[in-house]
Amino acid sequence: MASTDILLLWSDHAALSVTIWLAIAIVFLYLARGPAHRAIRSLGVVLRSSLRFAAKAISGTEQKLTERNREVLLETGKQASQRLLEREFHRVNAVVTRDLGAFPSLNRRLSEQINKMDQDYQQASEEPPAPPSWTNAVTAMVKLRSDDETMVGNVLGHIRTTAENQHRTAMDEYRKANRVRHGLLRGMMPYWRKVSQSLQDIGKSILGLEERSRIIDNEMSRYEEIVAGSSQAERSLAASAMTQFFIAGTVLLVAVIGGVVNFYLIALPMSEMVGGNSVLGPFKTSSIAALVIIMLEIAMGLFLMESLRITRMFPLIGALDDQMRKRMIWMTFAILLILAGVESSLAYMRDLLAADREALRQTLAGIQATNPEFRWIPSLGQMVMGFILPFALTFVAIPLESFIHSSRTVGGSTLAAVLRGLSVVLRMFGNATYHFANMLAHVYDLLIFIPLRLEDMFRNRKAVSQDVAVNSEAGKNLAEIEEVRL
Amino acid sequence: MIRRATTAVAAAFLVPVLLTGCSEPRSHAKAVYMLLDTSGTYTEEIDKARTILGYLVATLDSGDSLGVARIDSRSFSEKDIVARTTFDSRPSVASQQKREFIKTIDKFRKSVKGSPYTDISGGLLQAVEYLEETGAGHKYVLIFSDLAEDLKKGDFRDFPIPLDGIHVIALNVTKLRSDNVDPRKYLDRLAKWQERVSSNGGEWRVVNDLDHVGNMLDS
């Protein structure tokens, strides 16, 4: 039976038939009003309770996740701070070992130089013999008349000459002694300079150490804040993680583009080695082989960076003893070098294949194939690029480590935010469902408003007649009581 | 209970993966067989065929197969095959093969002579045989002809040709003088071939504008 037949079941006139159907529906709805209301309302309550329960559970999970994120963030910050402090201490150690490690010998040298200078000073400070004090007598004699030719005059003249000679000799000795003193003082100059240089060197080292100690102090206070779990430290670490995430992500994106360029450089010549028509799933084997080479290069780069202790993603490599680590560095570097050589030759082969393909295309088009001038320039460029790119990809390890570490924090925060949002949405949806169920019950009543109105009218009339009956009964009773009283 | 549920979930994930992995892989190689009509005045169109062949040779890659045969008075014959090859997996060798192939075609182009009759069905049958032998995943027959079949008296070609999974592309279907008098003949000819190809499981296409041969092998 078609729906039209059902619709026109009561009459051929559609309007009449529809009206009858409506009347039947209203009667049924009126009769089922009580259970229907209860069903609608309980559905609303059940949905609201379930959604609130789900929201509460999600909120709990979100709180746990936030707490865990906080722990991870602080722990990561603590580790980073420890690493920084460790590095600063290493630097201080290096400065102390390099500059102040030789302090005992420097001290001895300085002492020797100071002793030498002291001796020289002592020698230099010895007073040369002073001019004789009898010079006054000589001066007095000089003032005597020289034309006195008496015996006394002659004696005095001789005395004067002798005194003058002695005075000259004494003055010469005095000057000589002074010259020696000046020579000694001049000889002290290189020692002064040496001492001054040594002291300047020590001063520089001390200044460097002072600077380092300031950095260590700052980092220590930061470390203490992190250990104490202060909110400021948490905020600062979260902001730092977010910045690291975006910077590392950008650098990784650049590295991915570099990887793609590298891939296209070696994918075509790879088909010459592994065949151009074999496939693995939906991919060409040559493409997969090229990808494997690039992945190997990245893996070797990671190991190299790890062995150099630039990154710390593999604790096992970091824990290796220095001898083994050095071997690993050389091994990974050698493999990288070989891979770079392979890639360089593949890049050259690619150029040859491309040239051959171009020549073939010209032949097929009926054009005489030509050999362009300076063809060696792109060939050389491709070879150099093929050699450089593996080493460039090595440095991917650094942003990768930052990205992984920061993505833990960023991912955790994002997930917590999503859970928080979901919890709010569920709570809102629960409330909306509850109110919607109430509204649905009212809409239900709206559909059957005619029988409801009739019911109201009937009830009102019944109530009025009952009141009248009660009132008349009460009147009768009062009259009887009155009669009894009388 | 939990172990059973885990096993069931694992099985639900693994079984389709294993089934997919065990199924026979479909070849990605292409095989193209081109039939060149050498009857009557159509021989003059051979230069256009050379252009299309140049495009085909450039487009096809390592592992793909290409065959060229002439439509003769009786085309179901090995001697009508002008050149056929499967390109080597190494691109450098494949380039060499392509050069040799086009050289053979050029030689044929210079020495081609018109045939009195046109046995397209025989050539089509020969093409199907070749394409099946290659085992390629995508098979194409290109018919470079006016599609006017003219069989020798006594030759029987009115039987179904198995064309399952084969794309049959009619190229450069020129109009005959009689078609100009009554165009219905041309349309009937195309409809007849389409019906014949489709009823035998093939896919039929007509490419008359040779500027549009670029995406001919994309389907």
Outline the fold blueprint.
The complex is a heterodimer of chains A (486) and B (219).
Chain A lengths: L2 H5 L6 H18 L1 H68 L2 H23 L9 H8 L8 H78 L2 H44 L4 E2 L2 E2 H23 L7 H4 L3 H43 L11 H19 L2 H51 L1 H37 L1
Antiparallel strand pairs in A: 1-2
Chain B lengths: L1 H21 L7 E8 L8 H14 L5 E7 L9 E6 L4 H21 L8 H15 L3 E7 L21 E6 L5 H5 L1 H17 L3 E5 L12
Parallel strand pairs in B: 1-2, 1-4, 4-5, 5-6
Antiparallel strand pairs in B: 2-3
Helix pairs in contact in B: 2-3
Describe the structure.
The complex is a heterodimer of chains A (486) and B (219). Chain A is mainly α and 486 residues long. Chain A has helices spanning 3-7, 14-31, 33-100, 103-125, 135-142, 151-228, 231-274, 285-307, 315-318, 322-364, 376-394, 397-447, 449-485; strands spanning 279-280, 283-284. Chain A folds into three domains: 3-75 and 422-485; 102-228; 252-395, no CATH class. Chain A has a two-stranded antiparallel sheet. The longest helix of chain A is centred in the middle third of the chain and has 78 residues, at 151-228. Chain A is elongated and about 195 Å long. Chain B has six helices and six strands; from the N terminus they run H-E-H-E-E-H-H-E-E-H-H-E. Chain B has helices at residues 2-22, 46-59, 91-111, 120-134, 177-181, 183-199, and strands at residues 30-37, 65-71, 81-86, 138-144, 166-171, 203-207. A six-stranded mixed β-sheet of chain B has the order 3-2-1-4-5-6, with helices on both faces. In chain B, helix 2 runs antiparallel to helix 3 (91-111). The chains are: A mainly alpha (486), B alpha/beta (219). Chains A and B meet through helix 7 and helix 10 of A and helix 2 and helix 3 of B.
Summarize the structure.
With 486 residues, chain A is mostly helical.
Q: What is the CATH third-level topology name of chain B? A: Rossmann fold
SS elements, strand count of chain B: 6
The CATH class of chain B is identified as Alpha Beta
- Arrangement of strands in the largest sheet of chain A: 1-2
Separation of termini of chain A?
81 Å
Please compute the radius of gyration of chain B using only Cα atoms. 21 Å
Q: In total, how many domains does the architecture of chain A comprise?
A: 3
Relevant CATH superfamily of chain B:
von Willebrand factor, type A domain
Helix content bin of chain A: over 70%
> In which order are the strands of the major sheet of chain B placed?
3-2-1-4-5-6
SSE run of chain B: HEHEEHHEEHHE
Low-confidence regions of chain B: 1-24
Low-confidence stretches of chain A: none
Total helices of chain B: the number is 6
Oligomer: heterodimer
Sequence of secondary-structure elements of chain A: HHHHHHHEEHHHHHH
Gyration radius of chain A (Cα, Å) is 54 Å
Helix content, binned percent of chain B: 40-55%
